[in-house]
Design goal:
The protein has seven helices and two strands, in the order ββααααααα. The protein binds zinc ion.
Length: 171
């Protein structure tokens, strides 16, 4: 006997286990390959979320009528996140609001890198590129008679720039 995927309106065969409760791995429902992928992807989003992001996620309109509730306890907090991860009806992760929010997010590493480059958090990639060019000119050893201090500074700037290139250069 084959089990049908437990995802709403899905008629595929469910052969992958998806946990039903956050702390109880014994309970699960069966999903098809496509939906276990969606399930895992959604759950991974939470793993990398900061508290601020989670708060946004919960308080925003994206989480429907639940936004009027009080989210004082973290227990409640994560229960809701978990339930939403199980529930694809909201399509939260594909909503443009959520995508915009994710885009706005800046990691501590990037923040530090921007600081090294004497830029603020809102700096656009083109500004970073321009700033890099001007800093390289400013601190280039040729211009500073091989001053060790400037050499180190330039090294730091180059590292910061390659870090920012990794995250912002793609956008
Ligand atoms: Zn399915």
């Amino acid at each position: 006997m084959k089990t049908i995927c437990d995802w709403e309106n899905c008629k595929e065969i469910g052969s992958f286990k998806a946990p039903v409760e956050r702390d109880n791995s014994k309970k699960f429902r069966l999903l098809c390959l496509k939906h276990i992928k969606v399930f895992n992807k959604n759950w991974n989003y939470f793993e990398n979320m900061s508290n601020q992001e989670i708060e946004f996620f919960i308080k925003s309109d994206l989480t429907w009528h639940k936004s009027t509730k009080n989210f004082g306890s973290s227990e409640n907090f994560f229960n809701i996140l978990w339930n939403n991860a199980l529930d694809d009806k909201l399509n939260i992760f594909n909503s443009s609001n959520f995508k915009e929010f994710k885009k706005m997010k800046i990691s501590q590493t990037d923040k530090d890198a921007l600081e090294v480059m004497e830029l603020n958090d809102a700096a656009k990639w083109v500004e970073i590129q321009a700033k890099f060019k001007s800093l390289v000119k400013k601190y280039h050893p040729d211009k500073n008679q091989g001053n060790k201090k400037f050499e180190d500074k330039l090294k730091k700037i180059t590292l910061a720039y390659s870090q920012l290139k990794k995250t912002l250069g793609k956008k």
